[in-house]
Design brief:
Largest sheet: none
Order of helices and strands: HHHHHHHHHHHHH
Helix content: 55-70%
Number of helices: 13
Number of strands: 0
Strand content: under 5%
Radius of gyration: 22 Å
Shape: globular
Length: 276
């Protein structure tokens, strides 16, 4: 028997009853693609969106933990988690390149099978929005039919965002933060503050003195940059495939995606660049 034929020795935590497929639940994952149109290209459409939902799940897992670590003054752990989400976003951006191989005529043969389903109904996308600070109670209506999901979204809406916790950290570090910034109605949209911009300006002008906060600022900027790249790639892919048509489920299509690009999760971190 050659070395290649030798059995692999079991480690101290080996589970002989657990296979690779069992551990990853591959039977459930690989049977979750159920095309409805009978068209070859629908498999691509389903897998791209399912994979995106899995990447969003990991992003939510990381960002929620990063927010909690910032609240606990554990900035090194939070920075690692935020940086990881940036890499996840790079994967999600590339996925639009794959979906863009779908031509308008190919999508047209799939679209009737989608019914009223729409990406607008993605509750994980809303979770990401809320964790990052884009609060809009109006989007909850789309999830009223699923009480558990609706309740989870309400809880996130009513909780501090990642940016809220970053600003509360600045207050704990001695920066002058207005009460309406650090103790506010967390469900309300964030309103940019000159005092917050002034605090970030101090950090950017003295990075050596405030190095971990400077790192946090740059990680947040990178996160928003990649998230907006993802949104832009989404917009251009939709434009390439359906043009200016309305989206499925009555969504606004390009108009909605274009408006989303105009918003900012961390407005002062972009404004401060003009002041430097």
């Amino acid at each position: 028997m050659t070395a290649e034929d030798a059995p692999v020795e079991a480690g101290p935590h080996a589970r002989p009853d657990l296979s690779y497929g069992d551990y990853l639940a591959l039977d459930q994952i690989l049977s979750a693609q159920r095309p409805r149109s009978g068209q070859h290209d629908e498999m691509l459409f389903i897998i791209i969106h399912q994979a995106s939902e899995l990447w969003m799940k990991l992003s939510i897992h990381e960002l929620a933990a990063a927010r909690d670590r910032i609240a606990a003054d554990d900035l090194p752990s939070a920075l690692k988690m935020i940086a990881r989400v940036g890499r996840i976003q790079a994967q999600m951006i590339q996925s639009w390149d794959v979906l863009a191989t779908l031509t308008p005529s190919e999508y047209g043969r799939i679209r009737p099978a989608l019914g009223q389903s729409s990406g607008f109904q993605s509750f994980q996308y809303r979770q990401l929005d809320f964790i990052l600070g884009s609060k809009n109670a109006g989007v909850l209506k789309a999830h009223e039919a699923t009480p558990a999901i609706h309740a989870g979204l309400v809880a996130l809406l009513d909780s501090p965002s990642l940016y809220d916790e970053a600003l509360r950290l600045l207050a704990r570090r001695g920066f002058a933060m207005p009460a309406e910034v650090v103790e506010r109605d967390w469900a309300a949209p964030y309103v940019s503050s000159p005092a917050v911009e002034a605090a970030w300006l101090t950090i950017y002008r003295e990075p050596e003195r405030h190095w971990d906060l400077y790192e946090l600022a740059e990680k947040l900027v990178d996160l928003e940059y990649r998230f907006q790249q993802w949104r832009f790639s989404h917009l251009k892919t939709v434009q390439r495939i359906i043009g200016g048509k309305a989206g499925t489920g009555g969504s606004a299509g390009l108009g909605y995606l274009a408006r989303a690009l105009e918003s900012s999760f961390f407005p002062e971190l972009l404004k401060v660049r003009t002041s430097l």
